[in-house]
Specification:
Structural class: alpha+beta
Helix content: 10-25%
Number of helices: 3
Strand content: 25-35%
Strand order of the largest sheet: 4-3-6-1-2-5
Distance between the termini: 55 Å
Largest sheet: 6 strands, antiparallel
Number of strands: 8
Shape: globular
Order of helices and strands: EEEEEHEEHEH
Length: 174
């Protein structure tokens, strides 16, 4: 083997620190996107912009998928927003079969796409497309809720007007 090449494992072993979650609401955002509202006990701690792993079990098979949290840390319930992926077993299940009262497992929040602790004198520009707005919206809401919000800009793209995720919420922030 070439010593200058670093091999990266294709599969990463993930810690089994999952906790039960229960679906308390499902909102159809676009024809192919839903927001799943869920609760956990104890309450999931997170920062705006982070993601979680959701685990679904079907028979003896377990499926884990990463989804950005689209809820604020202060919200009573947590939320992830999922776009239907062609051929995607889990995104199809979430978009077409998951129901209020259903359970799944959720990991602790992860990720470094969070706001810096020091925001003084900063300006923020966010770029998102489609469901990629999911982690960005809580970041925008956090900044705009500050007593003296910093300058914030969002460039958001969607292929069609019907596919704008969180349209009403984004309009309210404008």
């Amino acid at each position: 083997p070439d010593p200058s090449v670093t091999e990266v494992p294709l599969a990463v072993s993930l810690p089994e620190t999952l906790q039960p979650a229960r679906v308390v609401g499902i909102v159809r955002e676009t024809p192919g996107t839903v927001t799943v509202h869920f609760t956990t006990t104890p309450r999931l701690q997170h920062r705006a912009g982070q993601y979680v792993l959701l685990e679904f079990r079907f028979g003896t098979s377990r499926y884990r998928r990463a989804y950005s949290l689209s809820s604020l840390p202060s919200d009573e319930v947590h939320a992830v927003t999922v776009r239907l992926q062609p051929g995607g077993k889990i995104s199809q299940y979430i978009n077409t079969s998951l129901a209020v009262g259903d359970g799944f497992q959720v990991s602790p929040a992860r990720g470094e796409f969070v706001l810096p602790d020091s925001r003084a004198g900063r300006q923020f520009v966010f770029v998102a497309g489609g469901v990629g707005i999911a982690p960005v919206l809580p970041l925008l809401q956090t900044l705009l809720a500050l007593p003296q919000p910093p300058p914030v800009a969002l460039l958001y793209y969607s292929r069609h007007a019907d596919d704008i995720v969180f349209r009403d919420r984004l309009d309210a922030l404008a």
